[in-house]
Design goal:
This protein is α/β, with parallel strands linked by helices. Among the domains are: 115 residues, no CATH class; 154 residues, Glutaredoxin, CATH 3.40.30; 147 residues, Alpha-Beta Horseshoe (Leucine-rich repeat, LRR (right-handed beta-alpha superhelix)). The protein has 25 helices and 15 strands. The strands form three sheets. The chain has a six-stranded mixed sheet, sandwiched between helices. The protein has a six-stranded parallel sheet with strand order 10-11-12-13-14-15, covered by helices on one side. Strands 1-9-8 form a three-stranded antiparallel sheet. Helix 2 packs antiparallel against helix 3, helix 5 crosses helix 6 and helix 14 crosses helix 17. The longest helix has 30 residues. It is globular and about 80 Å long. The termini are far apart. The relative contact order is 0.06. About 2% of the residues have low confidence.
Amino acid sequence: MSDKPRSFRHYRLFALVFWGLFCTLPFAAAQQESTALTRADFGAELVRLEKICERLSLTKEAEICRKWLAPTRTDHHRLYLPSDFPAETGKKDVDSWRNHFVNARKRYAEHLYSSAKAAAEQGNEVEAYRLVWQTLRENPEHAEAKRVLGKLATSLAARPQQRNGVKVNELNLLGNINRWQSPNFQLYTRASAKASLAMVQQLEQFYVLWTQCFYELWAPSGVLKDRIAGGDRAWPDTDRMNVVLLGSRDEYLKLLGSSEENIGLSVGYYNPTIKMSIFYTADDLTETLNHELTHQLFSEASDLPPSPLIEKVEGAWCIEGIALYMESLTSTDEGFIVGGLDARRLQTARYRALRDEYWPLWDDWCRGSLLNWKASSEVALMYSHAVGLTHLFFDILPQRDEARSVFINYIRSVYAGKQSPNKLFEILGGSEQKAQLNYRKWMTITDEQLKALVESPDQVRNLVLSRSQLTDWSLLAKLPRLKWLDVSFSNITSNQTAWITELTELQRLSFEATKLDSSVMPNVAKLRKLNELDISMCTVDDAGLASLVSNSNIETLWLTGTKITTKSFPTLSTMTKLKSCDVNQTVITKEQWQEFVSKHPRLSKK
């Protein structure tokens, strides 16, 4: 027998063995590792790695792959910071996953940077700037992205310098106060070193995110295009901004309480006269920090004309609206988001617009100044309306890019003391009646919008669906982290509410003026964290309310216009935390209710 067939058989056997070994390698590459990945390709690679991790019981790594890219939504804006690569562990399978994960991120980063270059060449520097930061999110070592951003790329990692024994003359603070200096801020602080360092890092982080959100108000036109093309035009160079962090609420109130109206309700405040933001350490500081820093950065880091009398200029709603809008800035698995149909402040605006039908006349609205607002009895309504309009122009309108550009130009005109709101009014409809009707229409959640929210259920905490005419209410079962839900004046019916029991985190629930009856109450009773319930104008009777007997969490109960009678008094007596209950427009008389309240002094006399 000749050697040739034997050699062929040996070669084929070797090839089969090699192929078998290759196919059993857990993280064998699915594509050439040098090619750039589009978002779709990157997503497919993450799914592939996730499945391999699940097969190998690499739970943590599988979760990272699963959450690395979020569903694409058009109702909010996504912003980015650099994200480090996972460290090597010395464990074979974990490090193999890490290498493929890092490689995929680098390849996606190349696609992002190419997109940034194309956007810059087309004159869309706002989008290009965000894409450069997204490039660094995927590849923090990307040399070109770091060169383009310059000192901005390193400001987040810069170590703050601490100085002791500093006096803040503008505030006349007595005693020792420390100063922490970072690339863009000076923090004067009486808080602990740990709290102070965390604050400095948060300040620098917000600054970078703010530049992404309002690029055209911060950087001169052409700077990014020049730097991406290899040039060295400088980024804006502003003086360090001053922030004060006090150690306690008492010190904060003592310092500002006498000079600033309603200061006792706040945890922070920006003073445009002395150019300082002042805060004190508190658990719920983030939203206020984002709000007041927005005022500070617009005043000190943007190209807007400085105005020490900003509180007197007309058009106050956009100044407060944009600061309220930035309170929605939230960290997610894929960078940060700002805006969104589910933003907390927007829910109140939607409630006021749809449930209360609040709409001030446009000309009067635009003439208001911050000083006028402070003197108004409707200041809470005005703040809600301001944030509603801002979200509308930034996120919700069909012509979102155009609306955003018009809104930015309006901000410029307000800061210049020469506001021109006519183009905004034209977008809203051009007449008072059309503007009001369009505002309500755009504020009402549709089927398509709810489906989009369901794609990112972990983020949705608050949702007002007032006056919504939905076809599939069962989608709400896919939002298990909801804490506040309002379906008032909507088309929901009792046989469309089986999903209620899935919302175990609910704290506030409103069915006001819907066709719900007592059959829904047993499911409502299963919501053990519920502390506020509104069933006003629903056909709930005494038997239905009895489902809540011995409920130990409900503090506020709206029974206005229901079918309850004095037979419900024993049920209400068992609700040990009930503090406020409204029985107006029921058969219960004022005298009967007062007698009941006299025996239960914890209740308000409604």
